[in-house]
DNA sequence: ATAATACAGATAAACGTTTAACTCGCATCG
DNA sequence: CGATGCGAGTTAAACGTTTATCTGTATTAT
């Protein structure tokens, strides 16, 4: 590999001059510039990133800490991050925390959870990353962990701590939008199969739904609201309960596609037609949504956009450390299929 | 950040001594070692990776080039790679080629395809990675591209070129296994909904199926073999054709879960019960397989294992450059559900 | 004419390690 | 007793850049 010294020798100048030509850090005479460029081409010179970083203290590398790359929204976000970073000449060190096995619910293992995050952060810091993007939802302990960190940090997907930059999607507005969509299709008796009762997304989405109803002077009766646990089976169970009601809803808003799939199965078995007898909508636009019968109308999470935006924010923070924290909430779009 | 010089000063020794303590590269007196260790602890010293790499020429970093992280098997493989690498103190630079939009089929865009790969490789090489793992299936042009590369290279998922190390899964054996499984359940009239007719997996899986049949003295009649294109709709179309046959098969082997889902829909609509009237199996174990009615018996790709193994191979190659190429084919397992 | 300024480029010190070569004292040995 | 070898630690060069400071010449202002 040719070094700067080789080029300098070839062009008959000093390495300083070569450096200035390469980086455009100083005005040089056209002749010298030309000579150097020729020499660079001839030697097939490419600057050594390590030396550059060692000297300058910047690696042009972003550490991306993901809870689990196998989670679908995570992959989309990483994809967006990567695309945006590469366009600006940044690399990405990915570190997977392997948190898909839900140990974060089990108190005795929280230590191990923290441990994994700490290890991840150490790994990234030892890689001299210029900034870190944390991708995931389970950020409860992060404020504690990241506190003593001087590296710029952006949360993607999760909300981070209040004093940090994050970019996420809108739970409330999206749910409200979907509700309005159902209303616009003439549905007034809308039932909800919510997620886990004490979870943040459940609360926000519920709020959005109720707001949208209220705006048109309607209210969801208590017996139309059923809480599941995000899983397929709970969609089944809760829908069965709903069908027992004396006055049936005409539309069913499941807070994710998995539960919506459960709904549809029950409706099918009960001989109800979708959407004629009952409309169903979901949330997430997972792969399964396209293959349900009928294909499910649902909400698309803006994963790529979240990634893109997080990447832009981290670069901004790096180049301008005094940037105030940004809280960005990206809107979701409705994917219209045939279940309404 | 404390440097080696600080530690040396604190301990009253030279930096060389500190280096030797840190790396265990030379036998030193217990007293000196102790002094140095104390100083390291006191200064909270952690070695600078950049300086280390610059000097030693090793970065302990692997470049992972993926065709598209949003592809499901890809995420699993990356997950496996990452876990194994971190355990050995390696980092991972991930670069996504964003190839999910199927431009590789369009001849006029092959240039752009190559371009993207070249850019990716350049990015990784400029990051001074110690080795590269290529994750993807579309490796047709790679031998051409990687030829002038001196960096150790391992293919994961795809077959790479014949003279390179790769690790993939077994198409033929898995299909044979599944066929034997069907046979063991008493099915003799097995129909196949194959993938795209000229694709490699289709050919290998077909071969596996036919071998397994032959071994018990059976043969699949030509009209039981139908070619789709891996998509849901083609599962639907081909199953309709199969149902027109005078003698119906008792089992249906779709070469992926999407087509199997299509099959099941048609069978449902035709009023046939699964598995009583017809058994169905798929391939891939995508998310959808669990949520079909009944849940689909299918084949699990060993994604994590592929990743793990690829990571081990690349580290082996780095530490021992003369390692001969390894061709590893990992076996898939059958996920038994209720569709047989 | 002379001082001040601008310009183009060179010099050399850093950045934080690793490691070959060296020093120095001490035991070993024929 | 001089040569030899060894053990423990030091010295300093090297890895390939960046960049503050310096030099020397040309331009401009007074």
Polypeptide structure, described:
Two copies of one chain form a homodimer. In chain A, helix 7 links the parallel strand 3 and strand 4. In chain A, the strands form three sheets. The first copy, chain A, has a six-stranded parallel beta sheet with strand order 2-1-3-4-5-11, sandwiched between helices. Chain A contains 13 helices and twelve strands. Chain A is α/β, with parallel strands linked by helices and 340 residues long. The structure holds a DNA duplex (30 and 30 nucleotides).
Overall SS class of chain A: alpha/beta
What's the level 1 CATH class of the domain at 171-300 in chain A?
A: Alpha Beta
CATH topology of the domain at 171-300 in chain A: Rossmann fold
Give the full name of the CATH homologous superfamily of the domain at 171-300 in chain A. Answer: Response regulator
Largest sheet of chain A: 6 strands, parallel
Biggest interface between chains:
A-B, 43 and 43 residues
Number of helices of chain A: 13
The percent of residues in helical segments of chain A reads 40-55%
- Cross-sheet strand order for the largest sheet of chain A: 2-1-3-4-5-11
Strand content of chain A: 15-25%
> What is the multimeric organization of the chains shown?
homodimer
Taking the alpha carbons of the first and last residues of chain A, their distance comes to: 63 Å
Order of helices and strands of chain A: HHHHEHEHEHEEHEHEHEHEHEHEE
Q: Gyration radius of chain A, to the nearest Å? A: 26 Å
| Low-pLDDT windows of residues of chain A | none
Number of strands of chain A: 12
